[in-house]
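Dear colleagues,

For the upcoming journal club I promised to circulate an example of a predicted protein-ligand complex. I picked one with zinc ion because it came up in last month's discussion. The inputs are reproduced below in full, followed by the predicted structure.
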Amino acid sequence: MRRLCDHSEGTSVLEIITYPHPTLRYRSKPIQRVDNELRQIVAKMFELMYEAKGIGLAANQVDLPLRLFVCNLTAEPNPAEEHVFINPVIDRPRGSEEGEEGCLSLPGLYAPVVRPATVRVKAYDLAGTLFDADVDGLFGRVIQHETDHLDGVLFIDRLTEMRRHDVAGALGEFELEFRSRREQGGIGSDEQILARLAEWEARYC
Ligand code: ZN
C-alpha cells in the first residue's frame, strides 16, 4: 500500500484525486504547525495545479486532511502571484453573484454557481503571519470554492436543482470510473483512507 507519509518517498507521490474519492468529503481540522515537509507539500501542490492548468488547489484534493489551499489566478508559475491560505476563515458575505466554476477533482465539468459577491477572508501564510482581506471577483470565488473543499464541500453541492440535473450524467461517469479503479486496486478502502488521514492529522492538527 502506498504511504504518503513515508519520508523515503517524499512528496513525489502526491497526485490530484477525483470525485467521488472519500477524502474530498473530509472536513479538515486546523493545522497547528508548519515544518519543512509541509512547505514541500505546498510546493508540490503548486506544481500539480500548474500541470493541470488550475488556479486553485486544496489539500483534500491531493488526499491530505490539512486545512490549507494554494491559489494563483494567472495559472502560470510565478512566486509573486502565488498565495497560500492556511486555516482560512470566511465571514462578512455581501451580495450575490453567479459565475462559472470548474474543479480539478471534476475535470471537464463546468457549471454556474451562485455565491456571495464579496467576503472577508482571514488566514495564515506559510511564514505563520495572519492576514485578512476583503475579496471579490474571481479571487473571491476561488477562495470560497477552495475553503469549501476544506469542509468537504464541492461546487456541485451548490448548484440549483436544475443545474444538478444537468450534471447528473457526468457525475455518474465519474462514479463508474472511480468504482472501476477501486476494483482494480488503485484506491484503498474507506477504512484504509481514513486511517491514513488520521496519521496525517496526528502530525499536523
Ligand atoms: Zn475544486
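Two points we might discuss: The CA atoms of residues 72 and 78 lie 8 Å apart. The helical segments are 36-51, 137-150, 161-183, 190-204.

See you all on Thursday,
B. R.
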